[in-house]
Amino acid sequence: MELTILWYLIPSLLMFCCGVYGFITRKNMIAMLISLELMLNAVDINFVVFNRFLFPGELEGMFFTLFAIALAAAETALAIAIIINVFRISEKIDVDDVTKMKY
User: Fold this and answer.
1) CATH code for the domain in which residue 48 is found
2) Where are the alpha helices (DSSP H) in the chain?
3) Could you read off the pLDDT of 49-84 as tens digits, one per residue?
4) CA geometry: angle at 36 spanning 43 and 71, to 5°?
5) Is 94 helix (H, G, I), strand (E, B) or coil?
6) Cα(44)–Cα(37) distance, rounded to whole angstroms?
């Protein structure tokens, strides 16, 4: 049985849709961050899959994926620092309390 591109894209699509749903419906900043990471991982899977099926001998998709993973790590570190500061100010990590950091 030969694996086609759909065997890889359907789980990636489900991961991305779960991430979007979690990002839209959650009020907790940690849950929103996890949902965002889920969406980024789905995009990384797409980079690798399209690279493998469209350009099997090239490595551009792999390099884009490594770059996206590095950006996701930096984004996560920055987001956790912001979440810690929000928690210090308001004792909660709900999105509604972020307006207190404006002043």
Assistant:
1) 1.10.287.3510
2) 6-25, 29-54, 60-90
3) 999 999 988 888 889 899 999 999 999 999 999 889
4) 65
5) strand
6) 10
